[in-house]
Amino acid sequence: MENKKLIETLYYCAAQCTHCYDACQREKEKEQLQRCITLDEECAEICRLTATRLEKNSENADKFLKLCAEICESCATECEKHIHLEHCKKCAEACRKCADMCSQPVS
């Protein structure tokens, strides 16, 4: 897989998670979204960090990718519980795609 596409996907996922985090904070049901909010924040952070490590050709990139895939999966699963919220739906989709790409061999 081409790293450029993966890096773009990681940054896109981070952006979707950040948007979802912000939108969840403004929801009336904010109390029921606390786990989603936490995972959005963690997922955005690990996606940005992993993208940066790939850009710098880190020798530990594979470890970051593995952790990133796991956190993206967790975030997607949680966001899918709130699929009635458009921001959660889009975040779940981005996280699933990112997790899938992070699980592929790096070129």
H/E topology pattern: HHHH
The CATH class is Mainly Alpha
Tell me the major beta sheet.
Answer: none
User: Any idea what the radius of gyration is?
Assistant: 13 Å
Tally of extended strands? 0
Number of helices: 4
Task: List the SSEs and their pairings.
Blueprint: H1 3-26, H2 34-55, H3 61-80, H4 86-102
Helix pairs in contact: 1-2, 1-4, 2-3, 3-4
Write a brief caption for the model.
With 107 residues, this protein is mostly helical. It contains four helices and no strands.
Note down, in words, how this protein is organized.
The chain is mainly α and 107 residues long. It is built from four helices and no strands. Helix 2 (34-55) packs antiparallel against helix 3 (61-80) and helix 3 runs antiparallel to helix 4 (86-102). The longest helix is centred in the N-terminal third of the chain and has 24 residues, at 3-26. It is elongated and about 45 Å long.
Provide key terms for this protein:
single chain; 107 residues; Substrate Binding Domain Of Dnak, Chain:A, Domain 2; 4 helices; 78% helix
